[in-house]
User: Fold this.
Amino acid sequence: MASPKTRRQIGLRRLQETLHEIAPPTKELLGSEELEAVLPLEDRRTSWRELQSGGFDLPELRVSPQVFWIAALTVLTPLGLLCLASRTWFVIWSFVELTFLAYKLTRPLAVQPPVWCRTVGQAALCLRYVRTPDGRGMPWTREEIAERVRMIIAESAGLPIDKVSEDARLTDLLGC
Assistant:
């Protein structure tokens, strides 16, 4: 097989090698495959952390919307009752404490990749250090730069990457 020529190809190869080390052998990875299909749910947090320590600048996993709303209700229900019962500023401190507690309790349930990093190809672009065989830094192609900029904008806006197109306006995407 010929050596990869772009950062994405090298990233895909490194991602596949890393996954072979941390999980049972997987098939040849394509850039369009969903990460959720490649990383089994029961091992996803562990695999994700190993990919992060293996040089992939991946974001933290997120909780599903259902878990988020359950945690929000867990925080807001007692807070509302406390507010009705006490009518003091103590409620503000309770809100901070309950929110922190809900966050800590839901972290183990965070198994969803963020909306801007759902495919193997997007994860491959998160590889920090890419070098040629002779040790020089690997240049980015125009397409990779455009994809990475789209990923950064999607992350900032909290949108799926397919909602960020080349002709989209930043003011519309970021709500400015």
User: Anything to note?
Assistant: Helices lie at 7-22, 35-38, 44-53, 65-86, 90-106, 120-124, 142-157, 170-174. The chain has a mean pLDDT of 76. The chain has two domains: 7-62+110-174, 65-109.
